[in-house]
């Protein structure tokens, strides 16, 4: 018998769930079911696959056909399920992720075997890190050929084992309805995540009988939704007596649909709120109690609020290294209440004094009741001094930026005006790098599901296909992708998909001619030795983004000075029958501030280059 490795055990722990799931508790993330023919029907395995998707309420899938998956494309031709033909399988995966993040429903992508399946690995890993409900369906070589290194064979089940919530290799056509139902249930319940379904070609071709609904068989999978009452009461007691508490809010609050409850809890307690990169929009940026984003490029008030807190109430957050900085120096005086639906996250990075396993919506609702009881008994915290200190920090160290010394366009100004013109109802999708951080800082996020980005994996190339998926899921919303010139060149081919499919996304390319975040690190930590970060999009204009946009069937615009920013954005806003790309040519040396250098303590936050915040002895 093979002994499990520590890595296997760790992965199993993450996937484990306990206690019973109450019916209907996860309806907010389940796909809507649609009626199907009640009588058994003789179909192929491929027909059973497509009928299963219809029965699960799937309205759109993103994919590319190929040899092993081709049998599925014949019944798909007559299906009510819309198929969007992407230009690269990575685009299919990110589009499905963007769809899922914007709608809360399961995103679906399809690819063939071998390279088709392996091209999905990055978006699957991305969805895994950010807990996105995704089902990836891949073709596989016929069962007799598995393990023979057949043409376009890859063990995608084995490859994706560490980056999926679960995965399946279907062995019989009769299993397809049950496996699809289980895949969607697993992806959308508990801690959401990606599930892969790999189907051999001969299984797709085999005759079978389709019946619905199937009987799921998931022994041991019972996510805990309702928290333990004793832990809730202890958390409420601590919240009612702390002198320097903070609410540390992660993406789990958004996924649980708990934003209204969060606002009520914050206003009831008066506790400062800090939202992570994945939680922007969970609590209004404009709310007086919002300190901003924590971590490497967080606000000074948020970073120091966490660092000097005596109580951290973490809801749906995982104490990521980008938030904590050097872990052993993080929040040394804080008692930690950690609530998460995934028991494997609690205590993984930071010891939890009060561990709470449960869905964030139920945790917050029960905290509201428990805190109300505390207040009725005359117990509530006096936070006046704490707020005086935090307000002083906000006033002395607000987010801001300096104009470029060479007179070039400031990227922060572009992004700030984009947010102000497009407004809080637009959906903003960011790539990864400086532009992502500036978007998180200078766009005001007032509503849930209006900010999409690749947080955990940090995937360059995410923005364009994810924006496409978001626009498909929310066709009436204005969808802006804020991308960098480096990210944009990785997946911009999906703009051809948008043009042909009638998906009018809008792309703001923040073109600084460089891999901007890498250049920033080279400036700060490598003596300005700019090794391989100049992309040539400034000096040589290769590619010319306006001409590239036009070649891909889009409207191309360019803006190079501050006077033209507003009218260029407004021109893009007026075009709703085609994708639009704006090439914003900005300064190459703009930096993201504040900054906590990787591996250092949050106490060492820099407000600007060479500038550390200065605190009086009486400060926090």
TrEMBL record:
Family matches, as SUPFAM superfamilies: DHS-like NAD/FAD-binding domain, Thiamin diphosphate-binding fold (THDP-binding)
Catalytic activity, reaction form: 2 pyruvate + H(+) = (2S)-2-acetolactate + CO2
Cofactor(s) listed in the protein's UniProt record: thiamine diphosphate; Mg(2+)
Cofactor note as given: Binds 1 thiamine pyrophosphate per subunit. Binds 1 Mg(2+) ion per subunit.
Family label: Belongs to the TPP enzyme family.
Region ranges (Disordered): 1-41
Residues of the Thiamine pyrophosphate enzyme N-terminal TPP-binding domain: 45-157
Biased composition range(s): Low complexity: 31-41
Keywords (A to Z) from UniProt: Amino-acid biosynthesis, Branched-chain amino acid biosynthesis, Magnesium, Metal-binding, Thiamine pyrophosphate, Transferase
Enzyme Commission code: 2.2.1.6
Pathway membership, UniProt: Amino-acid biosynthesis; L-isoleucine biosynthesis; L-isoleucine from 2-oxobutanoate: step 1/4; Amino-acid biosynthesis; L-valine biosynthesis; L-valine from pyruvate: step 1/4
Highest taxon of source: Bacteria
Keyword Transferase set for record: yes
Residue ranges annotated for the Thiamine pyrophosphate enzyme central domain, each copy included: 232-367
Organism: Micromonospora qiuiae
Listed name of the protein: Acetolactate synthase
One Pfam family hit: TPP_enzyme_N
The Thiamine pyrophosphate enzyme TPP-binding domain, residue ranges: 431-584
The keyword Metal-binding appears for this protein: yes
NCBIfam families found in the cross-reference section: acolac_lg, PRK07789.1
EC primary class: transferase
């Amino acid at each position: 018998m093979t002994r499990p490795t520590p890595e296997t055990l760790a992965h199993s722990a993450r996937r484990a769930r306990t206690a019973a799931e109450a019916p209907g508790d996860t309806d907010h993330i389940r796909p809507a079911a649609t009626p199907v023919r009640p009588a058994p029907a003789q179909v192929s395995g491929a027909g059973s696959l497509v009928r299963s998707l219809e029965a699960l309420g799937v309205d759109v899938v993103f994919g590319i056909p190929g040899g092993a998956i081709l049998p599925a494309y014949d019944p798909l031709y007559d299906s009510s399920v819309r198929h969007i033909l992407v230009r690269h399988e990575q685009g299919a995966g990110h589009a499905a992720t963007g769809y899922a993040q914007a709608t809360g429903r399961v995103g679906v992508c399809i690819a063939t075997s071998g390279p088709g399946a392996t091209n999905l690995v990055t978006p699957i890993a991305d969805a895994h890190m950010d807990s996105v409900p995704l089902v990836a369906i891949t073709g596989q070589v016929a069962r007799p050929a598995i393990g023979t290194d057949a043409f376009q064979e890859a063990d995608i089940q084995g490859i994706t084992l560490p980056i999926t919530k679960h995965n399946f290799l279907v062995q019989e056509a009769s299993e397809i309805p049950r496996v699809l139902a289980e895949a969607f249930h697993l992806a959308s319940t508990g801690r959401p995540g990606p599930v892969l379904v790999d189907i051999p070609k001969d299984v797709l071709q085999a005759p079978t009988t389709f019946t619905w609904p199937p009987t799921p068989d998931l022994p041991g999978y019972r996510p805990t939704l309702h928290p333990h009452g004793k832990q809730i009461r202890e958390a409420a007691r601590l919240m009612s007596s702390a002198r320097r508490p903070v609410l540390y809010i992660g993406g789990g609050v958004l996924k649980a649909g708990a934003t209204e409850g969060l606002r009520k809890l914050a206003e009831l307690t008066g506790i400062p709120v800090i939202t992570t990169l994945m939680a922007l929009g969970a609590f209004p940026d404009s709310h007086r109690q919002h300190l901003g984003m924590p971590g490497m490029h967080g606000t000074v008030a948020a970073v120091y609020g966490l660092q000097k807190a005596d109580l951290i109430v973490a809801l749906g957050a995982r104490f990521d290294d980008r938030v904590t900085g050097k872990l052993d120096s993080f929040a040394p005086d804080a008692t930690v209440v950690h609530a998460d639906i995934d028991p494997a996250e609690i205590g993984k990075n930071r010891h939890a004094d009060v561990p709470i396993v449960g869905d964030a919506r139920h945790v917050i609702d029960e905290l509201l009741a428990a805190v109300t009881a505390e207040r009725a008994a005359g117990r509530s915290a006096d936070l006046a001094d704490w707020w005086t200190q935090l307000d002083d920090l906000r006033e002395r160290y607000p987010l801001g930026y300096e104009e470029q010394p060479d007179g070039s366009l400031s990227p922060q100004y572009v992004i700030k005006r984009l947010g102000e013109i497009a407004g809080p109802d637009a959906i903003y999708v960011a790539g990864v790098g400086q532009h992502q951080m500036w978007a998180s800082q200078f766009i005001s996020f007032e509503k849930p599901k209006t900010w999409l980005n690749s947080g955990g994996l940090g995937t360059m190339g995410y923005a364009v296909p994810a924006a496409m998926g978001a626009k498909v899921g929310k066709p009436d919303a204005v969808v802006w992708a804020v991308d960098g010139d480096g990210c944009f060149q990785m997946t911009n081919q999906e703009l051809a998909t948008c043009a042909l499919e009638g998906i009018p996304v809008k792309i703001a390319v923040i073109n600084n001619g460089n891999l901007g975040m890498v250049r920033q690190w080279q400036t700060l930590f490598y003596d300005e030795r700019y090794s391989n970060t100049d992309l040539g999009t400034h000096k040589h204009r290769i590619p010319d983004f306006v001409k590239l946009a036009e070649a891909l069937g889009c409207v191309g615009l360019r803006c190079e000075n501050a006077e033209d920013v507003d009218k260029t954005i407004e021109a893009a806003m007026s075009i709703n029958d085609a994708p639009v790309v704006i090439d914003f040519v900005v300064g190459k040396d703009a930096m993201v501030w504040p900054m906590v250098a990787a591996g250092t303590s949050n106490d060492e936050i820099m407000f600007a280059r060479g500038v550390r915040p200065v605190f009086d002895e009486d400060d926090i």
